[in-house]
Design a protein that fits this description.
The structure is a single chain. By secondary structure, the protein is of the alpha/beta class. It has two domains: 125 residues, Rossmann fold, CATH 3.40.50; 164 residues, Dihydrodipicolinate Reductase, domain 2 (2-Layer Sandwich). It is 28% helix and 20% strand. The strands form two sheets. It has a seven-stranded mixed beta sheet with strand order 8-9-7-10-13-12-11. A six-stranded parallel beta sheet has the order 2-1-3-4-6-5, sandwiched between helices. Helix 1 packs across helix 10 and helix 6 runs parallel beside helix 8. The longest helix is centred in the last third of the chain and has 16 residues. The two termini are 34 Å apart.
Length: 346
């Protein structure tokens, strides 16, 4: 049994981590921190946890967290996680970070897109990118894992087999992605407040979203070439869920069935990835509340384009479930432990 801490536990990512850890057969939640909710019981803030834990949120303190945990999940905002990672690692704790602070290998790229100086640039080389379906070889026994963003997870999974097989070009890729409002975090804004978000859909941060360099980094690793991406995210009026549709210029002539066969071969042994039959596209309702990724594929022969869509739950496979999946691998547990949950049908 692994003792687990969650720093930043009341946020949406932290709440999903709490739910998954409390149901995990090999993990025990020992401490959950919050600056704003310190002193309140978890099941008081979130009554859905009634009967599952009697813990209260405590103020974040690196020493207290390290003393009672072996694995720490960082569910704090970008630019904040790097303040915790180094001191926790120095105390021998495994750190799994859900923020962007250790995803990008080039410190200059990070500082350009996130607008701050990185406080632990030496850890960028040490951090293992936590997308198991792309490469899980370094996750075993990793001490610092950088979990991918939700948009990069969906986009990379959609394009990965085709890029690896050099079936498509990594240049001039267009990504049309849509996310539920929970992707913006727990604190409401003028855009995410219910009257603004309900019955409306809008693109945002077009050409300037901070996940762009992470997606390009993943595409470049998959293809072995430089990548260029036009990424257009949209906010849609649903609580959770994400659908990324990726348009890739084909290098070879291939039918939709040829592409499906390639994807089935690549993902055939992946426990959380399903590839639909040719022409059948995924829906966010298929994966809601789960750690699954469902992929649909089509070929526009006249345009010479592969169209690959990937549906995930942005709070699970896009964040917290993926963090648990990585923790399972690093800790030597079954990769699927605590994650094989059926989704609500309606």
């Amino acid at each position: 049994m692994t003792d687990v801490a969650i720093i930043g536990a009341p946020g949406y990512a932290g709440v999903e981590l709490t739910r998954l850890v409390l149901g995990h057969p090999d993990m025990r939640l020992t401490i959950a921190t919050s600056g704003s909710e310190a002193g309140r019981r978890i099941d008081d803030v979130y009554p859905a946890f009634t009967g599952l834990t009697d813990l209260s949120y405590v103020a974040p303190d690196v020493g207290a967290v390290a003393d009672c945990s072996e694995v720490v999940f960082l569910a704090v905002p970008h630019t904040v996680a790097m303040e915790y990672a180094a001191p926790l690692l120095a105390r021998g704790v495994r750190v799994i970070d859900a923020s962007a602070d250790f995803r990008l290998k080039d410190v200059e790229v990070y500082e350009h897109w996130y607008g701050v100086a990185h406080k632990s640039p030496d850890l960028l080389k040490e951090a293992v990118y936590g997308l198991p379906e792309m490469d899980r070889t370094e996750l075993a026994d990793a001490t610092l894992i950088a979990c991918p963003g939700c948009y990069p997870t969906a986009a990379i999974l959609a394009a990965l087999p085709a890029l690896e097989a050099e079936m498509v070009s990594p240049l001039g890729v267009i990504i049309d992605a849509k996310s539920g409002v929970s992707g913006a975090g727990r604190a409401p804004t003028a855009v995410t407040h219910y009257p603004s978000a309900n019955e409306s859909m809008m693109p945002y941060k077009v050409g300037s979203h901070r996940h762009t360099p992470e997606i390009e980094q993943g595409f470049s690793l998959a293809s072995g070439q430089s990548s260029s991406v036009t990424f257009v995210p949209h906010l849609v009026p649903m609580n959770r869920g994400m659908l990324a549709t990726v348009y890739l210029r084909m290098n070879v002539e291939a039918s939709a069935q040829d592409v499906v066969d390639l994807y089935l071969e690549r993902y055939g042994k992946e426990p959380f990835v399903s590839v639909h039959a040719a022409g059948r596209m995924p829906a966010t309702s298929e994966v809601r509340g789960s750690n699954r990724a469902h992929i649909g594929l089509a070929v526009d022969e006249s345009a010479g384009l592969l169209i690959a869509s990937c549906a995930i739950d942005n709070l699970v496979k896009g964040t917290s479930g993926q963090a648990i999946q990585c923790a399972n691998i690093a800790s030597g547990y079954e990769e699927t432990a605590g994650l094989m949950l059926p989704v609500p049908v309606i």
